[in-house]
UniProtKB/TrEMBL annotation:
Species this protein is from: Phaseolus angularis
The protein's name in its UniProt record: U-box domain-containing protein
Highest taxon, organism lineage: Eukaryota
Any one biological process term the GO annotation gives: cell surface receptor signaling pathway
Length: 241
């Protein structure tokens, strides 16, 4: 998820990283330029952090928060442009020309979400906006939403479900207790994934396929237990998401 966003952001990071040493060696004799250089380094660190976070986050979670990530990338690009512009006037002409080329790249850089990510985002968010008349209708909508979302995000096999489940659990281990909304969201996604795990695989084939069964009986038992725990924990929270 966010493959194109991260690729574009990494491309900008690589371009700017190549010129940072030249700028530092030039030692701009200007307070504004030196402050801009410090800010540029901090912005590079934040950009790398965004890519790192995307690499270790759940695909479902990234889809739901995709607009937030898109906004971060755009703000980082704008910050790169601002600080490089402030530095450009305080360095030698050859170095200023190199900065000019990077500024051109920054201004032409396009960050956008992929269609599949946007589809997954919309179908998952729609769950949080609906008022269900009964449990049966809620479960029906949940099943349809998670089937569509996982299909769009390439979570189509028992193995990919395992990976997604483990990733969500890792995020839950790291989530700050001061961020209860994020914790609730992750718990709900885990609940949906575990509860509908077999239907997700069947949905891909259009029919039940033995190749998508969980052959490890001990793991199957673990999932059943987790489903019960998740359902108990989430039932009272779904309406608040």
């Amino acid at each position: 998820v966010h493959h194109s966003l991260c690729l574009e952001l990494q491309r900008l990071i690589d371009r700017i990283s190549l010129i940072i040493l030249d700028i530092e060696s030039a030692r701009p004799n200007c307070k504004l330029a030196m402050e801009a250089l410090c800010s540029l380094n901090l912005t590079l660190a934040r950009a790398k952090s965004v890519i790192k976070d995307c690499s270790k986050c759940s695909k479902l979670y990234l889809a739901i928060t995709s607009r937030r990530i898109l906004s971060k990338c755009q703000k980082l690009r704008n910050a790169f442009e601002l600080y490089l512009t402030e530095i450009q006037g305080a360095v030698t002409i050859p170095l200023a020309d190199k900065i000019s080329a990077i500024l051109h790249d920054l201004r032409s850089a396009k960050f956008s979400l992929e269609f599949t990510e946007e589809e997954a985002r919309k179908v998952l968010l729609s769950l949080f906006e609906k008022n269900f008349s009964d449990k049966a209708s809620m479960e029906k909508e949940e099943l349809e939403a998670i089937q569509i979302a996982t299909s769009r995000l390439e979570i189509k096999s028992a193995l990919s479900i395992l990976v997604e489940k483990a990733t969500i659990k890792n995020q839950l281990d790291e989530v700050n207790e001061t961020n209860p909304k994020e914790k609730e969201l992750l718990e709900y996604l885990l609940y949906l994934l575990i509860k509908n795990r077999k239907s997700i695989c069947q949905f891909e084939d259009g029919d039940h396929s033995p190749t998508h069964d969980f052959h490890d009986q001990s793991f199957e038992h673990e999932l059943v237990v987790e489903e019960a725990l998740c359902e108990k924990k989430v039932n009272d929270e779904v309406g608040d998401l």
